[in-house]
Design the sequence.
């Protein structure tokens, strides 16, 4: 095996998490290499594809730390690691400012409270994927340039395959470069490979019986390599059963104009979501991320429908930044419309009577104020329930769009990897989507992937610099 020179820090993955860790470490005087599997100049990763909004659970990162901590606890139903939540709440504002000092630019989107730090230029308000030259792409290129100026390097086409262990600590990474094995010795390794959403075996084991029926709503570069490498070194892992994603049109499998936007969350969560039997199967009021997770768990994840009426289509349906109405139709996505529920059921091929009963039962519970007694219950504290009562009636075929996995390698607030038997693994860190413990849980609580990536990226670098001082 060829041996590359010794490094202070080797980072696995050149997304926002990895590049934040690398740049901050180089800024603190450390010798850094980033190994990135992608070969292209603007290699695909979720950071590059993202909408670029730095927020904490749809709150402004400038809010007081105590308030943000509460927001994270609420979003995750109190199932987050309190130490990680506190670290994010306390340091997110600093992380966002650090990124600005590195050269990233932000714009504000109107008065929308959680969209006050959007990487500029923002993505256009059009359906489909559009990332080239947008804020997140510019930010990654800026960070890579800064890393180079500080003596660091980003190696494309370098796929990390295993961690090197020496005297009970992590001492480097083995990677494949142009088919050859190369060993990178390092005093510290940061795993930032972006999660396991594109690893069918891990998805089948933890998230869905049919991974091939989930739409990859991202770059699909997270193959779970980091998770496997860390586990082989004895790392602890958090719950692995939730993902951040959205309800998408089922057409996304053959129509690139309908993903990653528009999301269909507003339609399904203001109205109802039914399965092939024409029955509700989840609490729509928990929000689109939660419902997407429940769709993924269905025996057939391609059997769910969002059902709504004219008032929802013209109300919440127009509400998102890239709303389903009219973007879904403009992009050629399917929305069925019928004058009666029975006619709609015929088009959907679901049992007519059962479907009518489902809608009637829901409408009645809503009018009587007894939604919580439905089975499954329907909450409406997060998202207000609306009746499905005013013709014409609509149905949109759904799929679960998986953006990133929320579980992962267990870390402490400085991103140091925890050992399964207790304590931590010296020299090993994990940041961004590779790490777990903050997001997910039984409510599939979403906190915010970008701000998590930058905050724990810089915290890892600072911890490493302290350890090596
Ligand atoms: C469409 C979309 C919209 C989004 N919008 C937002 C938003 O507005 N706000 C928000 O907070 N979050 C958003 N997100 C989520 C956010 O993009 C991610 O949480 C974040 O970018 C994760 O960063 P990361 O560095 O952990 O992973 P990534 O950006 O995915 O980077 C991981 C990198 O590791 C590399 N890699 C993988 N395996 C290996 C290996 N074995 N060796 C070497 N390299 C490897 C990959 O090629 C990749 O480049 C969005 C995501 C998508 C897809």
Sequence:
């Amino acid at each position: 095996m060829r041996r590359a020179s010794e490094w202070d820090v080797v980072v696995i993955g050149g997304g926002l998490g990895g590049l934040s860790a690398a740049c901050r470490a180089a800024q603190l005087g450390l010798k850094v290499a980033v190994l990135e599997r992608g070969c292209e100049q603007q290699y695909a990763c979720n950071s590059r594809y993202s909408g670029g909004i730095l927020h904490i659970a749809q709150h402004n990162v400038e809010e007081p730390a105590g308030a943000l901590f509460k927001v994270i606890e609420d979003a995750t139903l109190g199932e987050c690691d309190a130490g990680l939540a506190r670290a994010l709440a306390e340091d997110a504002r600093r992380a966002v400012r650090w990124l600005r000092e590195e050269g990233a630019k932000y714009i504000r989107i109107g008065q929308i409270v959680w969209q006050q730090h959007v990487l500029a230029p923002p993505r256009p308000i059009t359906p489909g994927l559009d990332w080239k030259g947008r804020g997140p792409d510019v930010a990654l290129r800026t960070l890579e340039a800064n890393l180079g100026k500080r003596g660091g390097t980003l190696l494309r086409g370098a796929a990390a395959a295993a961690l090197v262990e020496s005297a009970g600590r992590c001492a480097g990474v083995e990677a494949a470069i142009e088919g050859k094995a190369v060993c990178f010795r390092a005093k510290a390794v940061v795993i930032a490979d972006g999660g396991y959403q594109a690893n069918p075996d891990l998805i089948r084991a933890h998230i869905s019986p049919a991974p091939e029926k989930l739409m990859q709503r991202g770059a699909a570069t997270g193959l779970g390599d980091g998770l496997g490498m860390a586990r082989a070194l004895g790392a602890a892992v958090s719950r692995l059963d939730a993902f951040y994603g959205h309800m998408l049109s089922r057409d996304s499998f053959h129509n690139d104009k309908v993903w990653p936007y528009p999301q269909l969350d507003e339609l399904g969560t203001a109205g109802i979501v039914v399965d092939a039997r024409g029955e509700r199967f989840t609490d729509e009021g928990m929000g689109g991320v939660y419902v997407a997770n429940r769709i993924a768990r269905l025996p057939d994840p391609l059997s769910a429908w969002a059902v709504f009426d004219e008032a929802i289509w013209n109300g919440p349906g127009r509400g998102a930044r890239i709303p389903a109405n009219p973007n879904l139709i403009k992009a050629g996505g399917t929305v069925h419309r019928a004058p009666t529920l029975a006619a709609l059921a015929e088009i959907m091929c679901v049992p007519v009577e059962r479907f009518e009963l489902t809608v009637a039962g829901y409408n009645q519970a809503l009018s009587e104020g007894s939604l919580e007694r439905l089975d499954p219950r329907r909450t409406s504290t997060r998202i207000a329930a609306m009746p499905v009562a005013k013709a014409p009636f609509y149905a949109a075929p759904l799929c679960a769009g998986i953006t990133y996995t929320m579980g992962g390698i267990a870390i402490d607030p400085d991103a140091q990897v925890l050992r399964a038997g207790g304590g931590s693994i010296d020299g090993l860190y994990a940041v961004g989507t590779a790490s777990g413990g903050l997001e997910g849980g039984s409510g599939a609580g979403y906190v915010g992937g970008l701000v998590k990536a930058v905050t724990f990226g810089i915290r890892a670098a600072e911890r490493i610099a302290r350890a090596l001082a």
Q: What stands out?
A: Residues 82-101 form the longest helix (20 residues). The chain has a mean pLDDT of 97. Residues 2-240+406-468 form a domain with the FAD/NAD(P)-binding domain fold (CATH 3.50.50.60).
